[in-house]
Design a protein that fits this description.
heterodimer, A: Rossmann fold, 2 domains, 6-stranded mixed β-sheet, 4-stranded antiparallel β-sheet, 7 helices, B: 248 residues, mainly alpha, MetI-like fold, 10 helices
């Protein structure tokens, strides 16, 4: 049963090919920050294609520009060089159809769970009946029905992150960007949240880009994992996991999961050692 | 025993001790009347309407001073926050502001505004406004960056971000400023009425004191204590609710 989640592919750890229907395209994307001490080359040049409906994770050493990459895709930051495109159009501001879940708790403490989830829909001027329908669905989907009237302060960290995911889900994004959304959660909760994320991904058909420090999380959730180098971050490897679309956290029990994690660590270890030897860690 | 009950018990014991000392003559009646008589006298004063105009004047001055302090303090806080250079220059002054005895400026205000409510309100505003400025700066500083990023993801214009995200996120801190401003407005108004007014509760207390009308003086003092306690309890109740939502 668990083994069924693994596609029978001998080349499942091979360098991936460019997906057929490109949803997100990055070409030569470079980001340099002007700091008081001088310029900091944080990212790039980065080339990346994400297929429509693909679950792609990014792993890399601390400070390699993972979050900068996400900010560029979200339209929160602009590259100095190169082109970032979503659905064929250059990303200049926050594009329509993009949802972001951050690592930090982004729930609004002054609003109930239900009002938090409905926040974006109300700003978008959507019909109240449609808002109610979508919010009911998202609240139920994320297992928050019994807490719909609660405030974030009354919830655990994991549940607050579910609120943020539900708030993104109701907007029906075609591209979901997740910046270490489970970073502050314990291992058990992270695995369960991973299951919910996979369920959400399957149901919405959205393209997902997950930034994570956790190799096991990347290996378990993704269709493909991109490994980034130390700063300035570029992709040094792409690992296809070969999981079937219908999968859950039990894939961690398979030997193939160990192979993927080992491959990721093999690449990442070299980069992490570079940081340690340079004294940046 | 809960903290609340213990607090009530301590206050009740203190009042009881004062009552006993007054009744037994340990504290002479010429110095202080028993608290029970203060309550009776306060009831009589309120029923007779004898000090109604003084009460109205003081409360009006407090409300005007508090509202002005909150609005002006909030606007000044926003301006100082928006101009980092100005903030760097002013922050040491704001931090040491309450070391300055504001009341020394009363001759200046009399010269500027004359004897009356305008001078009293000016002194009270001078006393109360800095707590609101400080609270506004603190509130804006503490808005989590991720909430502003979330607003950008929702493509909210700047004014909507300020109104729907930043203001509610900073509200608990701002309310602390409101609470302090109201308290300082009370202090500023009542204390100023002692020295530069011909009306108001502060003036009435000073008048009663100078004319040996102990019963009136203590009843009016009790009225101020009760009013401040009621206002403070109401503000604390709101503050508690806001703080409870802020805790994560």
């Amino acid at each position: 049963m668990i083994g069924a989640a693994v596609k029978a592919r001998s080349d499942s750890l091979a360098i991936s090919e460019v997906p057929a229907a490109v949803h997100v395209r990055l070409r030569g994307v470079t980001r340099v920050f002007d700091l008081p001490k001088g310029k900091l080359h944080a990212l790039g040049p980065v080339d990346l294609d994400l297929g429509r409906g693909e679950f792609f994770s990014v792993v890399g050493p601390s400070g390699c520009g993972k979050s900068t990459l996400l900010d560029i895709l979200a339209g929160l930051s602009r590259p100095q060089a190169g082109v970032a495109e979503f659905e064929g159009a250059p990303i200049r501001d926050v594009p329509d159809g993009v949802g972001v879940v951050f690592q930090e708790d982004a729930s609004f403490p002054w609003l109930s769970v239900r009002d938090n989830v409905a926040f974006g829909l109300r700003r978008a001027g959507i019909d109240p009946a449609e808002i109610a329908r979508r919010v009911d669905y998202a609240v139920g989907f994320m297992g928050l029905r019994d807490f719909a009237a609660s405030y974030p302060a009354q919830l655990s960290g994991g549940m607050r992150q579910r609120v943020c995911i539900a708030r993104t889900l109701v907007m029906q994004p075609r591209l979901i960007l997740l910046d270490e959304p489970f970073g502050a959660l314990d291992q058990q909760t992270r695995l369960l949240m991973g299951d919910e994320l996979l369920r959400l991904w399957r149901e919405t058909g959205a393209t997902v880009l997950l930034i994570t420090h956790a190799l096991d999380e990347a290996a378990m959730l993704s269709d493909r994992v991109g490994v980034m180098s130390t700063r300035p971050g570029t992709f040094i490897d792409f690992v296809e996991t070969g999981w079937e679309r219908d999968r859950d956290s039990r894939v961690v029990l398979t030997p193939h999961f160990g192979d993927i994690t080992a491959r990721l660590w093999d690449k990442l270890r070299v980069e992490a050692l570079k940081i340690m030897s340079s004294g940046q860690a | 025993m809960s903290e609340k009950r213990l607090r009530v018990l301590v206050v009740a014991l203190l009042i009881g001790a004062v009552e006993l000392m007054c009744r037994l003559g340990v504290i002479p009646l010429a110095v202080m009347i028993p608290p029970s008589q203060m309550v009776v006298e306060l009831g009589r004063i309120l029923a007779s309407g004898e000090y109604a105009s003084d009460i109205a004047v003081s409360l009006t001055n407090v409300v005007v001073a508090a509202v002005l302090s909150v609005i002006l303090g909030f606007v000044a806080g926003l301006a100082i926050h928006a101009w980092p250079g100005l903030r760097d220059a002013l922050e040491p002054l704001l931090a040491s502001y309450y070391a300055i005895p504001t009341f020394v400026f009363y001759p200046v205000f009399i010269t500027l505004f004359g004897v009356g409510s305008a001078s009293i309100i000016a002194i009270a505003v001078l006393l109360a406004i800095v707590s609101m400025i400080t609270a506004t700066l603190n509130g804006i500083d503490r808005i989590p960056r991720v909430l502003r990023k979330t607003a950008r993801i929702y493509r909210m214009p700047r004014w909507k971000t300020a109104l729907l995200i930043e203001l509610p996120a900073a509200a608990p801190y701002l309310f602390t400023g409101v609470k302090l401003s109201v308290a300082y407005a009370f202090i500023g108004v009542i204390a100023s009425e002692f020295i530069l007014s011909g009306s108001g509760l502060g003036y009435a207390i000073a008048y009663a004191y100078n004319n040996f009308e102990n019963r009136h003086m203590y009843a009016l003092m009790l009225l101020i204590l009760v009013t401040v306690t009621i206002v403070n309890t109401a503000l604390n109740h709101v503050d508690k609710r806001l703080q409870a939502r802020r805790q994560r």
